Amino acid sequence: MTGPEMVNGFTGEHLAGQPPHIRELLDRRAKVLGPGYQLFYTNPVEVRRGSGVHLYDSAGNEYLDAYNNVVSLGHCHPAVVEAVTRQLSILTTNTRYLRADLLDFSERLLATFPAELDRVTYTCTGSEANDLALRIARAHTGNTGVIVTRNAYHGVTAEVAAFSPSLGPTSPLGPHVRTISAPDPLRHGAEVVTMLRAEIRAAVDDLQRHGFGVCALVVDSIFSSDGVQPFPTDLLGVLAAEVRAAGGVYLADEVQAGFGRTGAGWWGFGRHEVVPDLVTLGKPMGNGIPVAATVLRHEIGREFGRNVRYFNTFGGSDVPIAAAAAVLGTIDREGLIDNAREIGAHLARGFAEIASGHPRLADVRGAGLFLGIEVTVPDGTDPDRALAQSLVDDLREHFVLVSASGPDGNVIKIRPPLVFNDADAALLLERFADAAARVLPT
């Protein structure tokens, strides 16, 4: 592998130990794919098919997928397969034609948000949604300064990569971007809100001093790339108030925390009891079909609408909207928000019980089906990336897929499809306990 290192990424260090057919695939991949692509895991996983919460390789091995939120309903959910197949046989066009399906879905989607968020514009990806949201925010505020957390990830367009520090030093931040710490109660204790209030005030002052002004605070509502930090829940309201007082807006990135994953309503920001000015949606929206959106207060988009003609050929087209409608309906019909809350709480209790016997598992935290387990050095809170990677790799070798997160790559990141059930949870806990016994020092 060349280029910047990815958390839980294949580096090529173990290439010689790969089976012949994997080496052949890696060689073919290197010869045809463009630059920048990377693979998960020390030993990459070949996949041939998926069903529900499982993936299958060419040998027929069944992997428990406890990480994939792209297919939020699980792999190949029948409702999405049927909706997309049906729509492909009827019509595929764009938002420049009058279409009831687009309006029906938009009304259903907006009904899941606070009343203040009453407009939606469609894109294909979360990166595009964040790019568009920033353009809207700039038009509204007249400012350019952006504030994000120190290891945030918000997308891959040139504009959005400029405020995605987790992409690393080879993808530098823009001069108009300032970073603040993510909440980290394990290390910051009860003073985390006070500390971050001071940090965001300093960021605001610095942006204003350099002539950028304050355009937007952009925050992933579960601080996923910062190591999965769901607490404290009074923080986002404090940060949003500081930014709004400086003339900026609060943009909630719900690409990872949204669509019921936290088990506390449809959207991650709801746990924090604050209403954003803009919200961006992405990956889970179409269960594998590219569809995303920017949701906003209508007054925030007024200036952008006066001066810009926005069009996205596939954003809001019939097939992605059919997929998104199937996802929305299935979450509601199958009670998957309640399921995320109940199964997530069961997993959190189970992981905490396992961690109680392993001091190197210093913290278990999460909300719904989004959990992080912090791996540290002995008798301290310093991160242990290598040990976390060993846990991830051991689970992969025993057919369970999780990943790692955080600025130091030491937080085990667990994010199963929303259809995870009691049996799936029991298997995950059993195999995690076994991995911990094999990998963690006694």
UniProtKB/TrEMBL annotation:
Keywords noted in UniProt: Aminotransferase, Antibiotic biosynthesis, Pyridoxal phosphate, Transferase
GO molecular function: transaminase activity
Keyword Transferase attached: yes
InterPro entries: Aminotrans_3, Aminotrans_3_PPA_site, PyrdxlP-dep_Trfase, PyrdxlP-dep_Trfase_major, PyrdxlP-dep_Trfase_small
Gene3D superfamilies: Aspartate Aminotransferase, domain 1, Type I PLP-dependent aspartate aminotransferase-like (Major domain)
Domain of life from the UniProt record: Bacteria
The protein's name: Aspartate aminotransferase family protein
